[in-house]
Structures are given as C-alpha cells and as structure tokens.
Write a structure and sequence with these properties.
With 316 residues, this protein is an alpha/beta fold. It contains 9 helices and 14 strands. Helix 1 packs across helix 7. The longest helix is centred in the middle third of the chain and has 13 residues. It is elongated and about 70 Å long.
Length: 316
C-alpha cells in the first residue's frame, strides 16, 4: 500500500523532492514548516507548494511540544520525510512514524554532519559531494544510511548553485527509497564514525577573508559564502577612508615571482585587473561590490577606485 507521509522542511532544498513525493503514488497527509517571522517575512516556498496542492500546513514554533506531538500521532503516518526543516526532532517525535523519520542531507555522510553541509563541501575543497538519506536518531546526523547519490563539484560553483543542483539530483533516490520502505526491501548502512567531520551553522562573520590563506583556499571560501553571508574584506587605499567590499568571485593565478615580497593583502593593478597578494601567490578579483554600490567587474572597479602602491586589503 502507498505510504502515508508527513513532510518537514522549509528551505528551497526541500522543494524538488517534496514536489516529487506529492506527485507520486504516496499520500502526503501534512506538511510541517517553520513559522512566518518578522514584519518583512521571507518567502516560504515549502508552504506555498503545500498550499497549492491543498495539503494541510502546520507551522509550530516548537515542533516537540506535547500538543504538537499529539497532532502528529493523530496523522498515523508511516514515514516523516525531513529536508532543511530547521528544528531539532527529539526522541518522542522520532518514535511516532511507523517506519521512522528520514532526513535528506546535503553531503556524503559521515562527512559534514551538521547544519551547513553544502557550504562546507565547497569551503573544504571537496571534489565530490552528494545527498544522503538516513534514518534520524537523537545524535546529530548519525543514523543508518538508506540511500546516497553523488555529484562532482564544479570549480566555479557556489553554495547556492550546488544546493539547488543537489535538490534536483536527489529526487529519483528519494522516490526509490520510499518505494523500498513501502515494499520492505530497504537496506541500511551504518556510518563509519572514524570518518566523521562537522559542518556547524555558519555565523555572519565567517565571510571575512584571510588573505594569508592560499589562492585555492580563498577561492573555495568565497564560493562557499554565497549566497550568505558573502565573503568580505576592508580595502585601505591611500588618501581614502576604509572601504568594505563584498568579494563575489575570484580566480587563482600562477605565482610568476612578481612582487614576491609583497605582504598578503597587497593590491595591484595588472593590465586592468584587480590582483591581491595571498599566501601562495596572486589572486584575481573577478567580481566585487563596494559598500553601497552595485556589484561590478574588477576592471570597472579599478576605473572608479584606482589602486596605488601601498593599497591593501585587511580582514573585516
């Protein structure tokens, strides 16, 4: 018989697999998503999807409250499917569905357990990532795995780009796993605890660039920080006040020995391109956004903000 499902999610990562489940032969009895908050509420794409399909939507601020648990029990669901929900699910809740609660996680577990797996996959320079479905247990992202799909990370891909690509990539696997659970043929693999790495929630100040890092490390960092909190630095230009800038795109350049004694963070104009000295050479700034201005290409920036000897970038 088709499974009765409760879907729990909030972010865009959840939409493609949730929509596919709604279009499958399984029955979605409810969608749980984060409550609307603030005067200027962010668009909740999961809520919009559920409403468009006439599926009941619940938005509790604390999903583990006794009255919410009672509501969940009354739904008699076989499976809770979770993707980018944003709340911790306690043991009492996890015990409710007949077959268990399962999470779609944006990395190849046990690598990058935590709230920001996609960002850390890029930040740490991984060549390959993917999505893992696992049965949720009380310890963080530790449950047995029931499905995986892998993907190569494009050298210029940002976290936002990769997140959306993985969301679509995991759709067939999600449906396969649900069908296996329905038929009783799902197989589980325990995680190798010796291979665990952590990907905790990224704070706002994580975007500050360390120019002493290598060109590749900074490139990975810049891409990982998009779309949030964005990589940033402070430019110090002779005769001008400090200028905070968002660094949107960079490109590592071979170190040809030019100005090899320059300190990390030193700025240079090379043939109309904005260059910054880093730990192992030079880095081209391809896209930059001065505070209060629109994002622009490096050459356009140099026309409005000429670089002189002694100008440099510092963390900030």
């Amino acid at each position: 018989m088709p499974l009765k499902l409760v879907l729990m999610g909030t972010g865009e990562f959840a939409v493609p697999p949730f929509e596919a489940v709604m279009n499958s032969g399984h029955q979605v009895v409810a969608v749980f998503t984060q409550p609307d908050r603030g005067v200027r509420q962010h668009r909740n794409v999961v809520k919009e999807l559920a409403v468009s399909r006439g599926i009941p939507v619940f938005q509790p601020d604390r999903v583990n409250r006794p009255e919410i648990l009672e509501s969940l029990r009354s739904l008699n669901a076989d499976v809770f499917l979770v993707a980018a929900y944003g709340q911790i699910l306690k043991p009492e809740l996890l015990a409710i569905p007949r077959l268990g609660a399962f999470n779609l996680h944006g990395s190849l577990l046990p690598r990058h357990r935590g709230a920001a797996p996609v960002q850390y996959s890029i930040w740490k320079g991984d060549a390959i990532t993917g999505v893992t479905i696992f049965r949720i247990e009380p310890a963080l992202d530790s449950g047995p795995m029931v499905g995986k799909v892998t993907a190569r990370i494009d050298p210029e891909e940002t976290s936002g780009d990769l997140m959306l690509r993985l969301a679509h990539l995991c759709v067939p696997m999600t449906l396969d796993v649900l069908n296996q659970l329905e038929q009783g043929t799902a197989t589980f693999e325990e995680q190798d605890v010796t291979q665990v790495t952590l990907a905790p929630k990224i704070p706002r100040d994580a975007g500050v660039i360390d120019w002493q890092a290598t060109a590749r490390e900074i490139d990975c960092h810049v891409r990982a920080m998009q779309p949030w909190p964005k990589a940033s630095t402070i430019l110090h230009r002779n005769g001008h006040p400090p200028l905070r800038c968002i660094i949107a795109k960079v490109r590592p350049c071979p170190d040809d020995g030019r100005s090899s004694t320059a300190a990390a963070g030193a700025m240079s104009n090379l043939g109309g391109h904005l260059m910054v000295r880093v730990g192992d050479g030079w880095l081209k700034v391809v896209r930059i956004q001065p505070e209060g201005r629109k994002i622009m290409d490096g050459p356009d920036f140099l026309r409005g903000y000429p670089v002189q000897s002694g100008d440099h970038c510092v963390p900030g």
